[in-house]
Recover the amino acids of this structure.
């Protein structure tokens, strides 16, 4: 049985957050038809301290909401593999975005990267692949290739779902994938 409802229509604002920018996509679902209406990345044009970043988000996110009029906001959950300082700052950024969405009377949902990537059909870079690349091009270059592959595999899937997309920013691609996941599974 499909999770897709035959009656839901509306826009989803999906966000791939960071401490330096906000990558977003606006996905519109009209019953079973899903379209990409907008996408972009907004660099935080402010001082580097967290208060300035939160103030900037407090201006830009409501503007995105007002302009695109989504019913839902989907934000990628934070993962704690970076250093503790970055993780702490990112949690403030995500929490602030969630609060702003709730203040706008929107439904706000978060999703972990493993969940939306699994749904998308993303295949992780395997230890076998890394070992083969290491043998072929050396450890340093194999690490670079693995990092590239991790991002590019999502891009290949999104390009197949939205032919002619021509997007090269991997954060925007992730935001599109997050919105596609939400439009296909949550509502």
């Amino acid at each position: 049985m499909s999770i897709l409802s035959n009656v839901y229509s509306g826009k989803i604002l999906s966000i791939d957050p960071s401490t330096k920018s906000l990558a977003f996509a606006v996905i519109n679902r009209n019953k079973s038809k899903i379209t990409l209406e907008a996408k972009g990345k907004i660099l935080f044009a402010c001082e580097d301290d967290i208060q300035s970043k939160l103030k900037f988000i407090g201006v830009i996110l409501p503007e995105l909401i007002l302009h695109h009029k989504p019913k839902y906001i989907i934000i990628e959950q934070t993962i704690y593999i970076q250093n503790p300082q970055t993780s702490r700052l990112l949690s403030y950024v995500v929490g602030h975005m969630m609060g702003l969405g709730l203040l706008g009377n929107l439904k706000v949902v978060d999703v972990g990267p493993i969940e939306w990537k699994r749904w998308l059909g993303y295949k992780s870079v395997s230890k076998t692949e890394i070992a083969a690349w290491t043998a072929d091009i050396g450890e340093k270059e194999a690490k670079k290739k693995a990092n590239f592959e991790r991002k590019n595999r999502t891009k290949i899937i999104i390009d197949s779902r939205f032919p002619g997309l021509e997007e090269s920013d991997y954060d925007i691609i992730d935001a599109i994938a997050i919105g596609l996941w939400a439009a296909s599974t949550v509502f």
Remarks:
- Helices lie at 50-68, 84-103, 113-120, 127-137, 139-161, 170-185.
- DSSP finds six helices and five strands in the chain.
